[in-house]
What we know:
Blueprint: E1 4-8, E2 14-15, E3 35-36, H1 38-48, H2 52-59, E4 60-64, E5 71-75, E6 88-89, E7 92-93, H3 101-105, E8 108-114, E9 121-129, E10 141-142, H4 144-151, H5 154-173, H6 180-190, H7 193-201, H8 213-219, H9 223-239
Antiparallel strand pairs: 1-9, 2-10, 3-5, 4-5, 6-7, 8-9
Helix pairs in contact: 5-9, 6-7, 6-9, 8-9
Amino acid sequence: MENNVxxxxxxxxxxxxxxxxxxxxxxxxxxxxxxxxxxxxxxxKNHLGLQxxxxxxxxxxxQIGPETGLPIISLxxxxxSELKCPFVTPSGCGVYNDRPSSCRMYPLIxxxxxxxxxxKVTEQYMLLKEPHCHGFNxxxxxTIQKWIENQGLSTYNELNDLLMExxxxxxxxIPGQLDxxxxxxxxxxxxxxxxxxxxxxxxxLPDGFTAGKDLTDAAEKDDTDLLKIGxxxxxxxxxxxx
Length: 242
């Protein structure tokens, strides 16, 4: 039986319920193939009380995207042949309040496109109905906007869109691999935010990279501000884009 992917209009309703009363509960936390976005990492490492470098070392592994040539961070499965998420427990997600954006978005798929002329982002949503998921048999009704609000997705989407803009510029302006210094900067800004903060405050960025006042101020505040301004700074220094 194949997956069923349905296009959804903005105000169209869909039915979905996920709880420990659904027979497939925790099933989607097995056979893990979980990419992490920069904001996913911020939320998870703060939930666990870890520096970003230690979180990356303990819970993730890195690949290079075959199409982008950029580092991609994936969540490392826990021990055992079931390849379970390291944070799943018999009673559910152990990091639920700070779970990754893809977990929050499911069963929706969000597709974005950006106009080169205006910069305007257009969203399209699809409903993924997988045969193993019984959450569609409930009676709770949602619209896209209600789901986004209920799952706390607005900040995730905003920061993920900044990353997708950087990836789009990379593919268009610098096909292939980045040089080692640029790849290091990309990894540090996107994934190793605590090291990035330290380098900013100690003025130890690699040669050719300088941090302005906005970035220095953000480094002294919270991680979300630093990541948001850091991604904008990364776009500027790598591609000379404002």
